[in-house]
Amino acid sequence: MLKKPLFAALGLATCLTALADNYPNKPITLVVGFPPGGGADSVARVVSEKLGNILGQPIVIDNRPGAGTTIASDNVARANPDGYTLLLTTMSLYGSDQLLYKSARYDAEKNFTHISRLAESPMLLAVTKDLPEQSVKGLIERAKQNPGKLSYSSSGTGVVTHLAGAAFEQNAGINMLHIPYKGGAPSIQAVAAGDVDITFGTPPSVLPLAQAGKLRLLAVTTADRSNLFPDLPGMKEAGLDGYNFTISYNLYGPANLPEPVLTKLFEATTQALNDPDVKSKLEKQGNVAAPSQSPVQFKQWALEEGQRYLKITEAAATAAGTH
């Protein structure tokens, strides 16, 4: 009576082993919800090159910006869970997308397989070079004296660069004008051109223009100074206690990714992120490799951290009269 269940179990184990052994046998697509040239795209290209070498198949970057990052996320949520379509995105996946975009019908917990964090980074508070204020304190004072007049750009409504600005408003008790763009590069260019006053940008987007003297850096968005940018004050030192904001780049697959495929992807990702060359390239971009301990640990962390981002989004939407 026990032979059939035993044979079935052995057959399943054999199939799963074969699946892991054969994966991947064709190129993998990594969907990124941001245009080329920004922070997410930069992380994707550094990590995917090494990850593809480890897995033995090329990883093709598919940039799909638009509607925040919901177009990319929806594409992966609907993909076949075979490990050949993956997603790199940020914490907007955890409720911010659904709050701001009615077309976003996915659920981060139910519709995605959590694989691992990839990297994290402070953002940089940058201002147009013609703005007279030289400090965060001065910036806040100007905003208080001119409610709704000081403008800040982001790479899209509901994405992390928007939430960094919204959290800044909430912590400082000020009201600024949010101007969203389709991606980090045009968002930063708007500040460099003087069309927008300030931005909270990713290092790959901000640094080239800052180094060219087209905008000025005032602080990092973490509470304390960052080892990546030792010459810039953290927010606590700059006069805004209680503000601490980083951007996390994370890797996902569609829901129900087979366990052997998930394990192989996680182990290969961890190996890639621990590679000295990958670490060095990420640090040059202003990022730190941040591999998770396990997919389970990553999911638990992400769901908890996602609630913090959702609360910021809800407060921003209420202030703007959109929620």
UniProtKB/TrEMBL annotation:
CDD domains: PBP2_Bug_TTT
Signal peptide location: 1-20
Coiled coil, from the record: none
InterPro entries in alphabetical order: BUG (IPR005064), Bug_dom1 (IPR042100)
Signal as UniProt keyword: yes
UniProt keyword Signal present: yes
Keywords, in A-Z order: Signal
Family affiliation: Belongs to the UPF0065 (bug) family.
Name of the protein in its database record: ABC transporter substrate-binding protein
Protein source organism: Comamonas kerstersii
Organism taxonomic ancestry: Bacteria, Pseudomonadati, Pseudomonadota, Betaproteobacteria, Burkholderiales
